[in-house]
Amino acid sequence: MDINKPRYTPMSRRRRIYEGKAKVLYEGPEPGTLIQHFKDDATDFNAKKHDVIEGKGVLNNRISECLFQRLNDIGVPTHFIRRLNMREQLIREVEMIPLEVVVRNVAAGSLSKRLGIEEGTQLPRSIIEFNYKNEQLGNPMVSEEHITAFGWATPQEIDDVMALAIRVNDFLCGLFLGVGIRLVDFKMECGRLWENDLMRIVVADEISPDSCRLWDIKSNDKLDKDRFRRDMGGLVEAYTDVARRLGILGENERPQGAGPVLVKG
Ligand code: UDP
Known about the structure:
alpha+beta, Phosphorylase Kinase, domain 1, D-amino Acid Aminotransferase, Chain A, domain 1, binds uridine-5'-diphosphate
């Protein structure tokens, strides 16, 4: 092996497969792999509001790595292989199911608006919702009837997705509770992973404060993207707090690319 040969193709020469609002996917080093790159861009739901928040991508890469690695460790299948650098991770290429799977434990956001339930109300049980991934339509909520009628997933696949969502929710609720955070709700996405002729559904995309509602258990402070959506400020500080509590960043470490983090007295 030529030791002077870079292990990965330099970014400029890599083939870009897909660019979303907060991430870019590049061709991976081996067939069946991709590189997922986390950007600093933040948009609200209909991409009406856009901002670049320095350090957000680095934090989401680390937090998503931590959560996906732990899911892999307990046998929940995910697309995650390993983190490559501050902004990138190596993942398995999957065929994405065009759904956002939202799991809710506490009323907030669109559920509160739609059903008139006060934010912060504990739900009688965890609720799973599906949104059809279509930006132009504003990712509308759909039922299992729509999903099967339009062929986005089969009834068996919906069962598998729901079973995964419940496992992920139970695990993450416990993990976050252990560090003083309430998992109010989160969004996950799934993909079909093909291994020879066998296919299984795995958790894909990212799980980070961009896609979860995380409230401090005592103060109810928001430690998630609602800080951006609701113009509250302090997003990088909140994400850094989540990373620290998960044991990702040391006490005095700050994410590269982010501005100084105030040391609390
Ligand atoms: N969510 C997401 N991407 C979306 C829509 C929702 O990550 O396109 C997440 C959001 O961060 C929250 C959960 O899914 O944790 C439920 O969001 P909700 O439907 O309440 O949307 P909102 O009221 O915030 O518009």
